[in-house]
Write a structure and sequence with these properties.
Rossmann fold; seven-stranded parallel β-sheet; 13 helices; binds 2-amino-3-ketobutyric acid; two-stranded parallel ribbon; alpha/beta; 13 strands; 340 residues
């Protein structure tokens, strides 16, 4: 029996998976198979060909996927985010690093068996950066991919290391073997900023203050923001995040000069974000109660990123600046969501 060509999404029930499954299903190019510890919500479940409930660390499960499907595109979204990873660093390392290694090995085996490179889309993060202090952060401005890559969190270290592992599989895998084995994994990484979705609320991240503030205001509950009003990092509306992942995955290999690409869209301070939230939801009770330790993490992330390589190589062009994201995507969608 021939195996069927499919796209695999790990961590599919998370925030990015939600929009990605919807877009991939609408495009209808290939059947979607998903892997997550959790079940998919029923409306998403109906869009996928098969959902595997389990861990990316379960080798038997990965082997059973190899035996049944011909995977030529992987969106490896499964990860523990930055705040959660600080509480359980060993688990974070297992999921974020060992899990990614297993998926890279899975992609290598797939590529060797069906003979085509497997496109491996990896969501990295601004957490891969580590600026030493606020003066340096202010002076650095828009940070390029190769600057300030000294992450200070477990999650950031995991992401940066896995970017290197992806490059290794793509370009140097088993470089001393007589035959050439590299090139089976076509690894492409995006360094995402904080993502803001109107339909899901994040959990376990440190950029979560912006979406948490907005979702709390829309539900009429008070919110104490855990960073200072002047805190500034890049953000992006979820539809642009999903579109960036799809666009980079679909870009011709020959157009890509780099393995890792920054993507950014807007970078309000927490106070600027709060002002928009209270304009959209008058009477919203948003205060600031900085948590010194979480603040310490966000202070090491850049205030903005230079995404000119993504724009030049594969046409990255976010549709949503802050105003548009707020008034045309976030606020109307969130209002509908909580009115239901
Ligand atoms: C987090 O806060 O950990 C994530 C990220 C910036 O990658 N949202």
């Amino acid at each position: 029996m021939l195996r069927k060509p499919v796209v695999l999404i790990t961590g599919a029930s998370g925030e990015i998976g939600h929009g990605l499954i919807t877009s991939l299903a609408a495009a209808g190019d290939r059947p979607i198979i998903t892997l997550d510890l959790k079940l998919l919500e029923p409306d998403l479940g109906s869009l996928v060909h098969q959902h595997y409930s389990g861990s990316i660390l379960d080798q038997d499960l990965l082997d059973s996927i190899v035996s049944e499907y011909e995977v030529d595109l992987i969106f490896h979204l499964a990860a523990l985010l930055s705040t959660r990873s600080e509480f359980t660093p060993m688990t974070a390392h297992r999921v974020n690093v060992e899990g990614t290694m297993r998926l890279l090995e899975f992609a290598q085996k797939q590529g060797e068996s069906h003979g085509r490179p497997v496109v491996f889309l990896y969501p990295s993060s601004i957490a891969a950066y580590g600026l030493p202090d606020l003066e340096t952060k202010a002076a650095a401005g828009r940070v390029g991919e190769n600057e300030w890559t000294k992450p200070t969190t477990m999650y950031g270290c995991n992401k940066l290391y896995c970017e290197h592992m992806g490059r290794y599989y793509a370009k140097r895998y088993k470089q001393l073997a007589p035959e050439t084995l590299s090139g089976k994994v076509d690894f492409r990484a995006l360094r995402f900023p904080g993502l803001i979705s109107a339909v899901t609320v994040p959990s376990g991240g440190t950029s979560d203050y912006a979406p948490e503030m907005l979702h709390a205001a829309a539900q009429g509950t008070s919110y104490a923001c855990f960073v200072r009003p002047d805190t500034r990092i890049p953000f992006m509306a979820m539809p642009d995040g999903v579109e960036a992942a799809l666009r980079l995955a679909a870009a011709p290999r020959s157009a890509l000069q780099h393995t890792v690409y920054n993507v950014g869209a807007f970078n309000p301070s927490a106070e600027e974000f709060r002002a928009l939230v209270t304009e959209a939801f008058p009477g919203a009770d948003v205060s600031f109660r900085p948590d010194v330790k979480r603040q310490g993490i966000v202070d090491t992330w850049p205030a903005d990123v230079d995404d000119s390589a993504a724009r030049a190589d594969w046409g990255y062009a976010p549709q949503y600046d802050l105003t548009r994201a707020f008034w045309e995507y976030l606020v109307p969608t969130i209002r509908r969501r909580y009115q239901q």
